[in-house]
Task: inverse folding
C-alpha cells in the first residue's frame, strides 16, 4: 500500500508543470501562473531574446518541451537561471493583461503581499511593484495606494525577487482596473502624526519638524482637485 502511494507521489511530481512548480516554490508567493498560450505567442516575447541568454533552451524549459539539441551538463545551471529570468520578464507582461490582473487581484484580496506598516493606513493592502523595468537593478518593492509610498517586503524570502518581474506599470494599471481600491483609500484617515513639545506642535521649518509633509498632502478645494486630475495624465500648463 505504501509502495503504491510512493509511486503515485513520484508520478505526480514528474507530471507537475515547470510553471506550477516554480510558482509553488518557497518565496515565490507573489507570482501567478502565466498561461502557456500567452508564452507560446511570439508577439508577447518580443525583445526578450536579446536580454535572456540561452533564450530558446530557457523557453523549452518553461513550456516543458524537449530541446532540439542536448544541453551540455556545464550549461544546465545557466539554462535554469535563464528560464527563471525569462519567466519573470514574461510574468511582468502577463500581469498587465486582463487575465493576469484578475489573478493578481485574487492574491491582493487574500493579502498575499502584506499590509502597509504605516499606522494611519490602517492595514491597507500592498501591491508589488518594481522601480525599474530592466532586470538586475533592484529587488521588488511594495506600494501602498493610500500613502503613496513604497516599502521593502517584511520577509527576507522575497528579497531575491527582481523588481522587473512586476515592472513599473502594473501598480498604476491595477488601481485603475479596480476602482474599489481608491474607494478603500478614501475611507481611510489621511491624518498625519505631528511631533509636539510641551503641548505645542513643532514648526514645519524646524530640523525635526514635518518638512516632508507635502508628500502626503491631498487636494481638498475644487481648484486643487481639478489640478490634480489634470496632472494625473498630463503636464500642467505653465502660466507666463
Result:
Amino acid at each position: 500500500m505504501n509502495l503504491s502511494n510512493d509511486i503515485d507521489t513520484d508520478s505526480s511530481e514528474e507530471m507537475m508543470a515547470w510553471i506550477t512548480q516554480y510558482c509553488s516554490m518557497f518565496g515565490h508567493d507573489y507570482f501567478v501562473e502565466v498561461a502557456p498560450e500567452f508564452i507560446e505567442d511570439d508577439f508577447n516575447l518580443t525583445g526578450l531574446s536579446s536580454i535572456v541568454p540561452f533564450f530558446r533552451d530557457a523557453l523549452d524549459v518553461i513550456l516543458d518541451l524537449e530541446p532540439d539539441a542536448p544541453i551540455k551538463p556545464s550549461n544546465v545551471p545557466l539554462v535554469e537561471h535563464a528560464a527563471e529570468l525569462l519567466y519573470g520578464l514574461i510574468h511582468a507582461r502577463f500581469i498587465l493583461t486582463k487575465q493576469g490582473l484578475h489573478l493578481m487581484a485574487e492574491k491582493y484580496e487574500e493579502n498575499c503581499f502584506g499590509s502597509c506598516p504605516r499606522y494611519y493606513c490602517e492595514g491597507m493592502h500592498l501591491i508589488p511593484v518594481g522601480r525599474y523595468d530592466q532586470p538586475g537593478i533592484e529587488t521588488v518593492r511594495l506600494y501602498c495606494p493610500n500613502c503613496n509610498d513604497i516599502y521593502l517586503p517584511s520577509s527576507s524570502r522575497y528579497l531575491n525577487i527582481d523588481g522587473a518581474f512586476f515592472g513599473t506599470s502594473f501598480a498604476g494599471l491595477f488601481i485603475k482596473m479596480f476602482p474599489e481600491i481608491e474607494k478603500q483609500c478614501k475611507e481611510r484617515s489621511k491624518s498625519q502624526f505631528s511631533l509636539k513639545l510641551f503641548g505645542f506642535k513643532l514648526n514645519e521649518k524646524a530640523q525635526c519638524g514635518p518638512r516632508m509633509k507635502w508628500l502626503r498632502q491631498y487636494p481638498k478645494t475644487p481648484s486643487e482637485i481639478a489640478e490634480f486630475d489634470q496632472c494625473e495624465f498630463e503636464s500642467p500648463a505653465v502660466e507666463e
